[in-house]
Specification:
Strand order of the largest sheet: 3-2-1-4-5-6-7
Bound molecules: NADP nicotinamide-adenine-dinucleotide phosphate
Low-confidence stretches: none
Protein name: NADP-dependent 3-hydroxy acid dehydrogenase YdfG
CATH class: Alpha Beta
Family: Belongs to the short-chain dehydrogenases/reductases (SDR) family.
CATH topology: Rossmann fold
Helix content: 40-55%
Distance between the termini: 40 Å
Number of strands: 7
Order of helices and strands: EHEHEHEHEHEHE
Number of helices: 6
CATH superfamily: NAD(P)-binding Rossmann-like Domain
Pfam families: adh_short
GO biological process, one term: bile acid metabolic process
Mean pLDDT: 97
Radius of gyration: 17 Å
Organism: Planifilum fulgidum
CATH architecture: 3-Layer(aba) Sandwich
Length: about 230
Amino acid sequence: MDATDERVAIVTGASKGLGAAITRRFAAGGIRVVACARSEDKLKEVAKADPDRIFPIPCDVTQSRQVKHLIDETLRRFGRIDILVNNAGLGRFGKVHELSEEDWDQMMAVNLKGAFLACKYAIPHLIRQKGHIVNISSVAGTVTFPGGGGYCASKFGLMALSEVLTQELKPHEVRVSTLCPGSILTEFGDPKPYALKPEQVAETVWQMISAPRGVIYNQIIMRPQVPPEMQK
Ligand SMILES: NC(=O)c1ccc[n+]([C@@H]2O[C@H](COP(=O)([O-])OP(=O)(O)OC[C@H]3O[C@@H](n4cnc5c(N)ncnc54)[C@H](OP(=O)(O)O)[C@@H]3O)[C@@H](O)[C@H]2O)c1
């Protein structure tokens, strides 16, 4: 634990699941974390774990003005942004001809546009700090499966955005990392009993932002180890 860490992070989708676990892990490591999601009450619950280091700011990442406010307010309070974790996301599954247009739009708006907006407003400040962007993609951003038309498209899109960011921010020494987890034990879907624990995935994010000077963990795919009797 490093109680003297001066860095300031923003974590989106921090009200539950993986985002809440990342927020708690960063705070335990001494980082001040601005926790963002739409549910203010849940954010306040998450902040109870470490009120001196976790600061809820409600924000819908699909709304440009709210995301700009999130960045402006973080700067007003702390004067710096070192780390942005684009974690907010949702999955709606169904064959393409059965997937509703609303579900498609929502996945694109949260999983892809939300990350774009947060990057758009945070990058000038991340450049100042030689900071770090971590995008939470998915194994579904690396391989497709039937029923994943909208979700895979949004996460493949996020992979492409991450690659462009890597190239654009290299001259500014801003590191870009993309994490592609398999099934996690959250409310996201219908996780298998062997799914990754959110704390295990959060620990990997911590390792990514703790890489030694001169090292970038550019992409990591992590999967649960499936017990032999449950393998297909
Ligand atoms: N669970 C898995 O198996 C799995 C596997 C691979 C990758 N992932 C990825 O991991 C990330 C986190 O998923 P999770 O499993 O922790 O899901 P989760 O438990 O459902 O949490 C999703 C989070 O996103 C937030 N969110 C949703 N829409 C938002 C919006 N418009 N603006 C701001 N925040 C929003 C939710 O908060 P509010 O509702 O309060 O806004 C919540 O905090 C996602 O990007 C997901 O695609 C998950």
